[in-house]
Every structure is written in structure tokens, then in C-alpha cells.
Design goal:
Elements lengths: L1 H16 L1 H21 L12 H20 L2 H9 L1 H6 L5 H27 L11 H25 L3 H18 L11 H8 L2 H14 L6 H24 L5
Helix pairs in contact: 1-6, 2-3, 2-6, 3-6, 3-7, 3-8, 3-10, 6-7, 6-11, 7-10, 7-11, 10-11
């Protein structure tokens, strides 16, 4: 637990000291909300109060979770390049606890970023249910755990940052468009809908959409357990793979 706490604290200090990282993480979601939300103003969407921005905003939160969490794996590449990872790996602590510490730190920073965007989205016209914030935070935590774990898995088996970025970019954009972040999944052709239901992000956005607007594609009692099982599975997988990683 001490190792997990120390690595969590390191990630938090790295996040709070990097003002440019905080600001840049807010720009892209706010641009999406500003231009798409206003550009499609008046477009009727099933549920979500009939306003497109109410449908869009949970999807943009999901986009932030996906991008921020998956790219958190690049810190492993940086630590490997500068030798910090090797020093940590030879410490007398479980490698699984090292992986969990990184996941805990990345999840916390993603949660902070996402809640900041949620607060700013209200200025842009997103009318959300404030009582749904606890359930939203749970969905953010579970979704972030999934994609930070995926980023950690990729970083554990890659040697170069360029290869990591290439694979992650190839991986995250299809997930984003398949998740129903921008349009209802029911508008997709049936084969695409099947692929959408295989993505954990789909369920994370659906839970957040239900919590904040009362609208969801699936019952939350289905989406939330699927998201929980996905988070546990990927966290355990990332801890196992990280434990087998060799640092040269």
C-alpha cells in the first residue's frame, strides 16, 4: 500500500506542477462542446431533454477519459528512457503494486480533468442533474481504470515512444466513434452496433449520460456491471503483464 501511495503521490505532483498539461487537456473537449454543441443547436436527439448539447456533453467527457487515460501510459516510456522505471522495478516491492500505483494516479488526474470539463460545460449550456455527479464519478473512475490499464499494457510491451503513439492513435479513434459519444448507437448499421457493444467506453458514456441527463441506451443495471467487470479485468491484466516486463 505504501508503494501504491508513493506512486500515486508522484503522479499527482507531476500533474499539479504541469500547468500546460492541465490547460491543454481542457481545450479539445471545450472546442468540441463549443462548435458541435452550438453548430447542432436545435437538433432533436432522443432523450437528453431534446437538446443536442445535453446528449453530446457526456460523450465528450468519455472522449477526455479515453484520450487522457490511454496516453497516460506514455509516462512509463518516459520513465524507462530516463532510468526511473528501472530503479522502481528493482525496489523490494511487488511489481503489481507499482502498476496499481500508476493506475491510481492516472485515474485520479483523469477524474479531476473530467470534473473540470463538466463544470465548464454548464457555461456552454449543458443542463445536467447535479445529483447524478456521484454516479458520474464512479463511471469516470471505472472507465479511466480500463483505459489506463490498456495504455500500461501497450507501454509494457513497447520499446519506443513513437511506436506507442502510433498504436494508441490507431486504437483510440475507432473506440471514440464507436462509443456513441457523438451520435446514438441505434443510428449505426447493425454490424457497427455489434462492435460498439464490445467497447467498454460505450458503457461508461451510457452510465454518465444516464446519471447526468436521465437518458440511456441500456438500463444502468446492465451497463454499470459490464463496466465494473471490464475495469477489474483490465487492471488485473495490466498488473500481470507489467509484472512480467523486463527493463533493460
Amino acid at each position: 500500500m505504501r508503494a501504491i501511495y508513493v506512486l500515486w503521490l508522484r503522479e499527482m505532483k507531476r500533474f499539479t506542477r504541469s500547468k500546460s498539461r492541465v490547460i491543454s487537456s481542457l481545450i479539445m473537449p471545450l472546442l468540441f462542446l463549443s462548435f458541435l454543441g452550438s453548430g447542432f443547436q436545435g437538433v432533436s436527439v432522443p432523450g437528453a431533454g431534446g437538446e443536442y448539447i445535453n446528449f453530446l456533453s457526456p460523450g465528450i467527457l468519455g472522449m477526455l477519459i479515453l484520450f487522457s487515460s490511454t496516453f497516460a501510459g506514455i509516462t512509463v516510456m518516459i520513465d524507462r528512457e530516463y532510468g526511473f522505471l528501472k530503479e522502481v522495478m528493482v525496489a523490494p516491492v511487488s511489481r503489481a503494486s507499482i502498476a496499481l500505483g500508476r493506475i491510481a494516479g492516472g485515474t485520479t488526474t483523469t477524474l479531476i480533468q473530467t470534473l473540470m470539463v463538466l463544470a465548464l460545460s454548464s457555461i456552454l449550456g449543458f443542463n445536467f442533474n447535479i445529483f447524478g455527479i456521484p454516479l458520474t464519478m464512479l463511471a469516470i473512475f471505472l472507465s479511466s481504470s480500463v483505459f489506463i490499464s490498456i495504455g500500461l499494457i501497450i507501454a509494457s510491451i513497447m520499446d519506443q515512444q513513437e511506436g506507442f503513439q502510433l498504436i494508441v492513435n490507431f486504437f483510440i479513434f475507432p473506440l471514440f466513434f464507436l462509443s456513441g459519444a457523438l451520435t446514438p448507437i441505434t443510428n449505426f448499421p447493425e454490424p457497427i452496433q455489434i462492435l460498439s457493444y464490445l467497447s467498454p467506453l460505450t458503457y461508461g458514456i451510457d452510465v454518465m449520460r444516464f446519471a447526468l441527463t436521465g437518458y440511456s441506451l441500456m438500463p444502468v443495471l446492465i451497463s454499470l456491471p459490464i463496466l465494473l467487470v471490464s475495469a477489474i479485468t483490465f487492471v488485473l491484466a495490466s498488473a500481470y503483464i507489467f509484472d512480467k516486463t523486463e527493463v533493460k
